[in-house]
Specification:
- By secondary structure, the chain is of the alpha/beta class.
- It is built from 16 helices and 18 strands.
- Helix 1 packs across helix 13 and helix 15 crosses helix 16.
- The model has no long low-confidence stretch (mean pLDDT about 95).
- The chain binds flavin-adenine dinucleotide and NADP nicotinamide-adenine-dinucleotide phosphate (NAP).
Length: about 450
């Protein structure tokens, strides 16, 4: 039998998900000394995962990482199968017929829940929905957010909470030259939100946001940051965390918060309140949310292992709009194991496992492997680790019977799947850029699936 990974029989890998993890895995495969073909599948016609649909529109510079992914995609050994949902348009078993190995990098597409009464009342949303809406993700274009409310609350103090609250706090002038969708920009232009509360269950030392993101809140054109100095008085365990030489993150965050607390609000139109030691315990209202009930917390546990414990003391605040930004969560793919508690596909060094058993030929990388944490760059070593396992296994992989990617794409098309190639995507990319330039934006995204497909493939 011809050896896999040779010129006579290149290794065929299907990568499921074209976000950072998928592209870094492809890069690692291309850099190896093996002959390989990589076909990346994405359920959207557009590549790049959260770099396109998650990273905030006012953080354009971060999106320049796309240049690296474009170079990878230009390689002759690469094919893009856009608009193909694995688990729906094609099963994992079918993929096995065409690929020697399958590497899942399908991210974390839904969100964790708070599990409190009233969570699903109108006016209470997930950050995922809002982020997807302003970034033009086709799944979220019909969502409506009542921006006529004066008080908006964001639960959670990670960087996604920073993004969501900053977009609510910015003026149209601060957003109009970004790639935010025109629809979102128009809705935000009419926003009557005046008070934004960003609420953490633990204290300022445990906040997950990073120093540049919190610093940015101090430079908003028409929004004053507000921090109660009393919340910055530290208990001994928090002081111990702060004084740990490695914890520069918390020291920098605290310095920014102290500077905010020392400010006298300058009378800007909006106010941005950072509040600590509070957990939501109920969302109340008749037809829609009218108020949020919070329980005061104290911290319990050793330094760096402190968790929030409710004190039993509650307080209610009037609020008509709320975003739950408490973390993303993976979605299972039919036919593959899934660890419900963590929302991930279980694995060891990137090899998919079921109980103690390694499932041959199946690999994972990125958020679906390790959970929804880490910046774009975190996915690179993660994907490289997985590819190292895959390449180490090459001798034991079962060669797939079909080895023609173009024929496979044609077969899917014949079944009615409107497969988008990378060349198709580049045409859409050019159209978006052109539309954006006309209005002073880097791009104006297409946000409806049908519109994208009709533009590319005809109605
Ligand atoms: C709102 C937000 C903002 C962020 N901002 C930043 C930032 O500013 N800087 C930074 O460094 N990091 C940022 N991050 C983190 C960064 O985006 C992630 O670390 C990274 O995107 C995770 O990569 P991934 O490839 O695992 O998943 P993703 O980027 O989510 O990619 C997964 C891909 O899989 C596809 N997919 C899912 N299911 C299927 C299926 N069944 N079949 C086919 N395709 C499928 C999806 O369409 C998607 O394209 C942000 C994250 C979020 C949520
Ligand atoms: N600019 C950027 O670089 C950027 C932008 C966006 C996202 N990202 C990255 O993407 C990853 C995901 O970000 P994220 O903000 O979704 O996640 P995250 O950093 O894990 O933050 C989640 C937040 O939700 C809180 N939380 C969780 N469960 C809760 C509950 N039941 N009740 C109240 N609060 C709860 C957490 O508090 P505890 O700490 O108490 O658990 C934390 O404050 C992170 O690694 C982030 O850095 C980066």
């Amino acid at each position: 039998m011809t050896e896999l990974g040779t010129a006579a029989r290149p290794l065929r890998v299907a990568v499921v998900g074209s976000g950072p993890a998928g592209f870094y895995a492809t890069e690692a495969l291309f850099k190896s000394d093996r002959a390989v073909v990589v076909d990346i599948f994405d359920r959207l016609p557009t590549p790049y995962g959260l770099v396109r649909a998650g990273v905030a529109p006012d953080h354009q510079k971060l999106k320049s990482v796309i240049r690296i992914y474009e170079r990878i995609a230009e390689d002759q050994r690469f094919h893009f199968f856009g608009n193909v949902t694995v688990g729906r348009d094609v099963t994992v078993d079918e993929l096995r017929e065409h690929y020697d190995a399958i590497l899942l990098s399908c991210g974390a597409e839904t969100d964790r829940r708070l599990g409190i009464p009233g969570e699903d009342l109108a006016g209470s949303h997930t950050a995922t929905e809002f982020v997807g809406w302003y970034n033009g993700h086709p799944d979220y274009q019909d969502r409506e957010f009542d921006l006529s409310q004066e008080v908006a609350v964001v639960i959670g103090q990670g960087n996604v909470a920073m993004d969501v609250s900053r977009i609510l706090a910015k003026t149209v002038d601060e957003l109009k030259e970004t790639d935010i969708t025109q629809r979102a920009l128009d809705a935000l232009a009419a926003s009557r939100v005046r008070e934004i509360h960003v609420i953490g269950r633990r204290g300022p030392v445990q906040a997950k946001f990073t120093p540049p993101e919190i610093k940015e809140i101090g430079h908003l054109a028409d929004c004053d940051p507000v921090v109660d100095v009393a919340a910055l008085e530290l208990a001994p365990a928090c002081r111990a965390e702060l004084e740990d030489p490695k914890n520069t993150h918390a020291r920098k965050n605290l310095a920014v918060l102290e500077e905010f607390a020392s400010r006298t609000p300058s009378g800007k139109r909006r106010r941005y309140h950072l509040r600590f030691f509070l957990s939501p315990v109920g969302i109340e209202g008749d037809a829609r949310m009218e108020r949020l009930v919070l329980e005061k917390n104290r911290l319990s546990g050793e330094p760096f292992h402190q968790s929030a414990r409710g004190t039993g003391e509650t307080t209610a605040m009037e609020a008509g709009l709320l975003f739950r930004s408490v973390g993303y969560r993976g979605v299972p793919i039919p036919g593959l194991p899934f660890e419900e508690r963590k929302g991930i596909i279980p694995s060891r060094e990137g090899r998919v496992t079921e109980g103690e058993t390694i499932l041959p030929g199946l690999y994972v990388a990125g958020w679906i492997k390790r959970g929804p944490s880490g910046v774009i760059g975190t996915n690179k070593p993660d994907s490289y680790e997985t590819v190292a396992s895959l390449l180490a296994d090459i001798g034991g992989l079962a060669p797939c019977p079909h080895t023609d990617s173009a024929a496979f794409a044609e077969r899917l098309r014949a079944q009615g799947v409107r497969v988008v190639s990378f060349q198709d995507w580049k045409r859409l990319d050019a159209l978006e850029t052109e539309r954006g330039q006309a209005v002073g934006k880097p791009r104006e995204k297409f946000t409806r699936l049908e519109e994208m497909l009709d533009r590319l493939l005809g109605a």
